[in-house]
Recover the amino acids of this structure.
């Protein structure tokens, strides 16, 4: 009897809640597995999926978004050993799960902290409330592969934004496996879209895209590339989050900065009754 040949897994892109191959048909090898190599067309398709999901996700109640993020944490906990088998340290998987829970808890509390009633001179109510920016492009950090990824995705989506994530080309397996977690949770299709491959190919397209409202350059380590992306982003006045230092402590308390950086503030005036 001949020895069985194992089926090599092909890690595909995650766009619109589905797992398509790259439209170019290209892939590259990581840890004996084929990983799709996203093209500029894939990046544009991901933006379309993210834009289509904005209305439903931003329109969901904050409580509902929090429930969904907590469900992601539950599913991530259930796949702990799978991430460990990919080379993600067990304590990092635990930290990433805890980070999901932490952000889930802020979903219905942030508006109370970041919004409120403003004192005005006149018989009016003046109320300010946070609203999502829209579609956010995110460059994920290379390390820590999973905790860094969760730390840039969760704060963007908990406030009602949708994201297109360019995963680290050297550590894509954790990203696509996280996509499998998201696909089996209650996250609506298009809220999170994950591209694998060369950053130099997909990220400039995202930075220049007219339907992307903000870009998070956290994972960009090349200063020249970061500067070029900021110039491209300026074309439609995207909000830009600059790269973090190489020695950034991802285990530290993340604070509210990543959530509030991707929010707009809407102020409403209303006359007081007699």
């Amino acid at each position: 009897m001949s020895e069985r040949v194992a089926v090599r897994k092909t890690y595909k892109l995650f766009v619109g809640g589905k797992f398509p191959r790259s439209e170019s048909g290209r892939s590259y090898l990581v840890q004996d597995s084929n990983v799709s190599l996203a093209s500029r067309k894939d990046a544009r398709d991901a933006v379309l999926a993210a834009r289509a999901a904005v209305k439903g996700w931003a329109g969901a109640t904050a409580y509902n978004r929090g429930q969904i993020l907590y469900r992601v944490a539950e599913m991530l906990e259930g796949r702990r050993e799978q991430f460990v088998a990919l080379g993600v340290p067990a304590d990092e998987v635990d930290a990433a799960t805890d980070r999901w829970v932490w952000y889930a808890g802020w979903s219905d509390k942030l508006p109370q902290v970041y919004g409120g009633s403003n004192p005005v001179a006149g018989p009016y109510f003046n109320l300010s409330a946070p609203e999502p920016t829209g579609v956010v492009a995110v460059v994920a950090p290379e390390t820590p592969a999973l905790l860094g990824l969760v730390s840039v995705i969760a704060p963007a989506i908990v406030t009602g934004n949708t994201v297109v994530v360019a995963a680290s080309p050297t550590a894509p397996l954790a990203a696509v496996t996280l996509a499998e977690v998201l696909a089996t949770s209650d996250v609506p299709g298009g809220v999170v879209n994950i591209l694998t491959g060369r950053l130099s190919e997909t990220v400039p397209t995202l930075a220049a895209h007219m339907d992307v409202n903000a870009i998070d350059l956290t994972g960009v380590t090349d200063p020249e590339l970061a500067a070029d992306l900021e110039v491209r982003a300026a074309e439609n006045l995207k909000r830009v989050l600059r790269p973090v230092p190489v020695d950034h402590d991802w285990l530290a308390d993340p604070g509210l900065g990543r959530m509030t950086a991707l929010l707009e503030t809407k102020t409403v005036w209303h006359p007081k009754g007699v």
The longest strand covers residues 124-132.
